[in-house]
Amino acid sequence: MQQQFTDIVHLIKQSRSKAVAAVNTEMINLYWNIGQYIHNRIQTAEWGKSVVKQLADFLQKSEPDLKGFSDANLWRMRQFYEVYKDTPKLAPLVREINWSNNLIIFARCKSVEEREFYLVLSKSENYSKRELERQISSSLFERTMIGNSKLAPLVREIHTELSNTFKDSYIFDFLNLPDPYSENELQQGLMKQMKNFILELGKDFIFIDQEYKLQVGNSDFYIDLLFYHRGLQCLVAFELKADKFRPEHLGQLNFYLEALDRDVKKLHENPSIGILLCTDKDSKVVEYALNRSMSSTMVAEYKIQLPDKKLLQQKMHELLE
Fold first, then answer.
1. pTM for the whole thing?
2. Of 100, 102, 93, 79, whose CA–CA distance to 156 is shortest?
3. Which are the contacts of 96, defined by CB distance < 8 A and separation ≥ 6?
4. What is the mean pLDDT, run by run of 10 residues, along the chain of 321 residues?
5. Distance, CA of 320 to CA of 307 (rounded, Å)
6. Can you say how many angstroms the Cα of residue 248 is from the centroid of all Cα atoms in its chain?
7. What angle do CA 97, 38, 19 make, to 5 degrees?
8. Residue 296: what pLDDT?
9. Exposed / middle / buried, residue 235 (Cβ in 10 Å: 0-12, 13-18, 19+)
10. Cβ atoms of 228 and 236 closer than 8 Å
11. Contact 240, 191 (CB under 8 A)
């Protein structure tokens, strides 16, 4: 009897998976059709950039429950269509992966072969957004094409037995853990604990979001923790890196602050600031990212009201013990 019940559970899960896949396919079809529509109107000079913004405003006002149709996303749909309209053999593949992974692939990949490579892997390996970003950043496509000439034609032919080949190619940037999901769960746990700790520091910190999404061009970026500080009247971004401090970490955080100041910060608010928390087995590093154009008086005021470095280092040590 238990086996029969288990069979029913399997049927339910199978149907759910099919339903999700069908919804995803329909959503990608919609984005493709919207992109095609915008492309055609612009090509015939009927529409300019301002019209797309007007369309986004119209959708927001007439259908306030709709999400994902900002002017930035509408332009992405147009680019999505333009990237793939002349490569019909990739059209079925883009409908088999989620929109987030599609955004990454068409924004970061430069050739038809590279796009096909990551489209195939995203589907066969069920990549999360972060796993796909990691593989592209590690130049997996280039290394595979150069280092294994026998494999390259199979990739182009969408060979069905690629999964075992690429499982050995994962690059874990953070904690050198054996499983990417373990890393993600640990990162999520660290962010949750650190969020609670920051809120305990004083009433001036107001939590905004975890993994706050920034849209810059055709790419999405995610700030680990974003707060607003009432006393300083500014946004405060926290980035947690579970590895040794590297200069590019600060560069990434400064990039986030620039995006916050351009697209999120209100006119009456002060420039955003960032706090970088890095840790490995040997040390815990805390660095502040401040706008270089700030006056020395403002910098001093910021540092007085920010959490003390030693306190943050101590908390990180406790969380990781």
1. 0.50
2. 93
3. 21, 25, 119, 123
4. 70 71 80 88 78 84 79 87 87 85 87 89 83 82 64 40 30 33 55 76 81 83 88 87 77 90 90 81 67 60 70 70 56
5. 19
6. 17
7. 30
8. 60
9. buried
10. yes
11. yes
